[in-house]
Every structure is written in C-alpha cells, then in structure tokens.
Amino acid sequence: MRTIREYLRTRVLLGSAVILAAGFVVLALAMRRLDIQEFDERLEDEARLLASLMEREGRTIKIELDHEYWPEFQAGAVPAYFQFRFVDGSVILRSESLQDGDLPLLPPVPGKPVIINSRLPDGRRGRFVQLALAPHMRETHAEINEAGHPDACHVPIPGSLQADSEIVVLGFARSREELDALLLTVYLTLAGMALLILGLIAILLRRVLRRGFQSVEEMNAQIRGLGPEAMHRRVNLSAVPGELDAVVSSLNRLLDKLETSLQHERRFTGDVAHELRTPVAEFRAACEVGAKWANDPALVERRFANLRESAANMERMLNDLL
C-alpha cells in the first residue's frame, strides 16, 4: 500500500525536476545566446579588420593583404575564409583557403552585418558574416609608392556601380567548432548541476520526511501495542505536531470510553454470574432430589413448586440486571 511519505516524496521530486529542468533550459538558452553573441561580435570584428585593408583610388579598389600575418586564410587544417565581391557578384579577392569555392552571397543590408550559420567549403559547420561596405578613398596628398605592396590587389570598379556607395560585399566565415564545444560544455555543466541539485533535494527531502513523520510512526507503534489486555495505555507522543493534536486527543478519549465500557461489562458479567449462582444451585438440587425420590409424588410436587419459585426469582433478577 502506498504511503503518504512515498506520495509526498514522489510529488516533490517530480515537481522539483520539472522546475529545475525549466529553469536550466531557460538558463542554457540565455547562456547560448550570450555565447553566440560574443562569438558573432568577434567574427564581425575580424571581418571589419579585413575590411579596413580595402581602399579606393578613383575607380579602382585596392586591397593590401599580407598573407604572412593572416595564415588562417591559407589552405590548412582549420582555415578561415573571406571573399570580397561587388554587389553584382563579381569577385574582387578571395582567400586561398577557398580555392575554387565561393561563400554565400546574401542580399546586402546597408550599415548592418548579416550573420548566419553556414556549411563551410570543407564540410564543417561554420558561422558566416557579411558586410556591405563603401570603400574609403585613399588620401591623395601622401606620397605613394607606385610599386605598392607586393600582395596588393587592384580591381577596377564596374561602370554600372557608383564608386562612393556601398558597392563591396565582404563575406567572412570561420568554423564554429569552438563555439559548439563551448555550448556542449555549458549544457553538460548545467545538466550535471541539475542532477546534483536534484540529488541533494532527494537526500534533504528524505531526512525532512523522516523527521516530519517521526510522530506518526511513534503513534502507529503505540496503537499497535493497544489491546483488551492493555486498555490502560494511552497514546503519549514525545512531541505532538498541530496536525496530530486533534487525532491524539480524540483517540485517547475513545480509549477512555472503551476502558470504562469494558470495566462496566466485566462488573455486569460478575454480577450476573453471582446472582445466578444460587438459582442454578437450587435447580441442580431439585433435579437430584426428584431423580432420587421419583416415587414420592408429594415430594416431587414440592420440588417442582420450588423450581417455579426459583425460575420466577431468576426472571426478576434478569429484569433487574437488564
């Protein structure tokens, strides 16, 4: 039979599990959002750093990129990717890590980065940011070395585009393995914390219920010791909680009444036995005399008269007792 203690323990643990699960899901989603936001901010910062290498000389786009300082854009184990394009889709410059591939080209949003999840050219899951850029004009008053940077890229601006508007789209992508590993660590940590807290709740709940039901167990043990031979006993708890005070008081009053009734019954039985002992003895003596002198009609008649008188006395006694 299921006990109240088991019912309370099950309900509290289930309720705690639901509350913890809901709380940690909300916390996990919030931390996931913050981690992704931080990752995207770093991604955007890297993209804008790349964009700072681009400038315009008249109707020519110039990008100076020293691959010695940007090894991650070369073909390797965990490369990053970038691609400069005009808004019409024509390529200005792409990273060596792209080889013959292309990054996604999304509808440009002026003044706002577009960040999405994307599958990288090498098949890994990645994060992609796209910036719509207006190339800044190179200062003409400075002395310029005509040879320029050995890795500089010069691309003329198509005639259909206005040179002073956001005509360049920069796409930058990086693997999100680091982000996914961080999120997995966060999820596992939160799950472990939830299980730990739930375990602590179960241990604490067990102790609390044991202590809380101690009075009930004590009362049950005393009730099991009651019986006809121990009617003098009463339920006497070391500490009576308010919930059991009325129960204990009512039970003790009932035991008082039962003991009084049992005593009255015993006295009644003793009185009946005492009052009936004499008439029964007279019946037995009359029967013995009648059996011994059966041929004496006068004696037998007197004995029957005595029996009638004894029966009448017994009837009066029973009426008095009842």
Describe it:
The chain folds into three domains: 1-51 and 179-212, no CATH class; 54-175, no CATH class; 228-321, no CATH class. The chain is 53% helix and 15% strand. The chain contains five helices and eight strands, in the order αββββββββαααα. The strands form two sheets. A five-stranded antiparallel sheet has the order 4-3-8-6-5. Strands 1-2-7 form a three-stranded antiparallel sheet, with no helix packed on it. β5 and β6 form a beta hairpin. The radius of gyration is 52 Å and the shape is rod-shaped. The protein starts with a helix and ends with a helix.
| Strand element count | 8
Mean pLDDT: 83
N to C succession of SSEs: HEEEEEEEEHHHH
The major pleated sheet works out as: 5 strands, antiparallel
Low-confidence stretches: 141-147
Q: What's the total helix number?
A: 5
- Amino-to-carboxy terminus distance: 45 Å
Give keywords.
5 helices; alpha+beta; 3-stranded antiparallel β-sheet
Task: Please outline the helices and strands.
Blueprint: H1 4-51, E1 54-57, E2 60-64, E3 81-86, E4 91-94, E5 114-119, E6 125-133, E7 152-156, E8 168-175, H2 177-212, H3 214-224, H4 242-292, H5 297-321
